[in-house]
Structure formats: C-alpha cells, structure tokens
Predict the structure.
Amino acid sequence: MKDTYIDIKSLSLEFELYDSSKQSLKKKIIHKAVGGFIEHKDSKKTIVKALNNIDLKINSGDRVGILGHNGSGKSSLLQVIAGIYEPTSGKIDQHGTLTALIDINQGLDFEATGYENILLKGILHGYSLKEIKKNLNSIIEFSGLGDFINMPIKNYSTGMVLRLAFASSTFKNQNIFVLDEWLSVGDDDFLKKCELRLTELIKDSDILVFATHDTNLLNRICNKYVRLESGTIVEQGKI
Amino acid sequence: MQIIKSLFRDYFIWSYMGMSEIKKRYRRSLLGPFWLVLSNVVVVFSLSAIYSIILKKDFDWYVVYLGIGFVIWQFISSCLSESTEYFIKSSNLIKTYRISVYNYVFREIGKNFIFLIHNLPFWILIIIFYNVDLSLNIITIIFSYVLIFLNAIWVSSILALISTRYRDLSPIVSTLVQLSFFATPVLWDVGHIFEIRPDVAWIVYFNPFYHILEIFRAPIMNNEIPYLSFVVCLVFAVFGNIFSSLIFNKYSRRIVFWL
C-alpha cells in the first residue's frame, strides 16, 4: 500500500469577511431592489487570502512539519487537506484514508461519561460503532483512565481529557494523519506516549502532516518541513 | 441524492449525536423524559379549561383536540425556530470534522421527533379517558409521522442554511412562528370559523400547517382519512426535499466559510 499521496497544485484559499451589514438579509433585499439607482459605499468586499498559490507534493512515508507564525496559514492548510474548506482556486488531490485531529477537544460532551465520549468522538471521526467497540479496551488502556471511564469527563483533569480524546481518535491505522499544534500542550509523559502511538500508526502507512511552533518536537517527529509565511510557502526541505 | 445518502449512511452519527443531546437534557432531572410530557399535560388541561368556555366547546372534546394539536405544534415551532441556529451552534464541529452538514440538521430534527413521540402515552391516556371512538383509520397516523419528519427536514435545512449566511433571519422566523400559532387552528377549530364566516373560512386550506395538524387530528378525532391534507403534505415533502437538495448541492460547501 504505497500509493498514498497528497498533491496540491497552485492552491489558494480566500475568506470573505462579513461585517454585520453583509450578514443582513434585509439590506441585501433593499440593495437588490434599489441597487440600480443608489451606489452603496459599503458594497466593497473584504477578502482575506489565507493561502496563496501553494504547490506541495507529499508522498507516502513523508512526515511533514508545517512551521510558521500565528496567522501564517498553517491551520488553514491543514483544514484544506482535511477536506473542511474547499479551495477557492487550484486543486488538491489525495489518495488514502484520512484522520484529522484539528482541535482535539471539539465534539466532547463534558456532561457525558468517558465511555460515551469515546463513542461520540469515534463516530465524528467516521469510525463505525463496531470498530470502536472492538478497540475499546486498547483505547481505555491508552488513556490510562481505569475506573474513571464511567465518570462524567467534567471531573477529569485537562491531561486526562486530552489522553481520552487522543486515544479515541487514533486507535486505528489510517493512511494520512493531520495534526494541528494542540499536541504541544501535553506534558512530557503524554507526548512520549503520543509520539510512540503515532510512529506506530504511521510505520507502515503513510503520511503525517503536523503543524507546530515547536522545532524540537518537529525534529523528533518529522522528516520534512515546510515554512509558511502569510499564506505562501517560503521554504521547504528535508530534516 | 446527497440528503438520502446522509440520512441512511450517516444514520449512526446523527442519531447518536441527537441521543446525547437528549441525554444531556435529562441527565439531572428526576422524571427524565416524562417531565416534558407532564408540563404538556398541565398546559393542555389549563388551556382547555379556559378556551372550552370562551369558544363554547364541550370540554371532553376540546381537551383531546388541543392535546393533539398542541403537541404537534410544539414540534413544528421548535423545528422552525431552532433551525436558524443549527449550523451556527455547531460551528466548531463543522470547522473540525468532515461529516456532512446534513448531520447537524438530522440531529436536531431527530431530537425533536423523539420528544414528539414521547407524547404518545399522553395521547393514549386522553383517548381512553375521554372515550374517543376509534376506527382502523387511525393506522394512517404512522404515515403522518413520516410526513411531518420529511417536511421538517427540508424546511429546517433551508432555514438553517440561509440564516447562517444572513444572521437577521432568526428574529424574523421566530416572529412568524408566533404569528402562525394564532393563524393556525390549534386553539380554535375550522368548523367554528365556517359557522361564523363561511365566506372567508376557505383561506385556512392555504395554510400548510393546517394540513400537517389535520393528518394527525382527523384520523383520531373524526375517524376519517383526510385525503386532501395527506396529498398536500406528501407533495410538499417530495418537492420541498428536491428543492432543498438542489440548494444544498450548490451551497453546502460554503457553509463553513460563513461561520
């Protein structure tokens, strides 16, 4: 199974910023009705270019670290790869199953028990209930929660929540893993465990795309890097 | 069609999300689901006591009439007025996971649908207690449930989409829902209007909410199948869902940009 790849060709992503008058149906209708006669001075669009003409080919076996300042487009690039945003122009081709850990705490229900959250998180990632239940023991074991699993997760510590969320999203081999920088917030123990699991998961399959500020972590996990600055790739190479 | 595919293929995703919403609501209440039913019982009996006098109706008849209509109206009004928030309140999930946006619609409709079904024991009790004559026509309300579900889906998904882009739709919708409650025969009945003003009463047939209520009320209360209302609801369900599918094919990928 060596045919996993991500191929990005001259891709751009633009956001239109909507101020409150742009979000008003009433103004839109009035504008349509009288638009021919009155030139509206607020009719200019505000557009933010989050990604600008990105060319990037990621092959099987690549662990790509994405570097850049806040607002440089790291997260946007990950979200495009994860299929959340549709590119404004250009193309993205990819082959292989994908799990994106963009914001790992999203989708957790803090009133529900750890067990219920494993199921919830799993199905949001597109796993079937059968798969999740089959791997339940290994998920619980990885998260190290023991008997806490039947307690509401609002009683958990931040670390416990993080472990649970990570375990329930990564129990199965996927061809492509996409990780945003949240990984940097865990403690050392947790990081080591995550690294171990990730290396295990991407050992025979395939691609890891990882956004971070932390160059140490990048050096340990990745074998390639890409540096983004205001939505453009300014530097890329091997580690 | 995308909508049918999502409804069945992602069945587990939206039903599980809907169930966890329901559990969330009931987690700390002693009576659980029956709290909702109990509050309906109180409202229906109090309103019946008042309005059966105002409208000069027999209490035993009126309490069944309102008991059915009120529960159905509750479903309609919560689907419509909550729909404007469907995508906005799930904005973080939409920006994080790749699941189809239909799941966020189905989750909410499914939740309200289960609340609607909760009220069945209440209906059965008032039917037995007030000696409503039933015939086999009552079986048709199974189809009524299907039709109300299908209609809720297309209306809510369109409202959810537009109100994500245009945020001032939400107050308009809630005002219209309130207005419709008084314009639709929930508290009053059509026969009454036909007695007073037969010349204008036909307008009620142009109110789609009337037909939705009729497909539940007529089989239970009048032992008849309201063919016209069934046809109206079916036509709305089919064409409405085709219409909303076309809109979603075009715009569903834009939703995340509007959040």
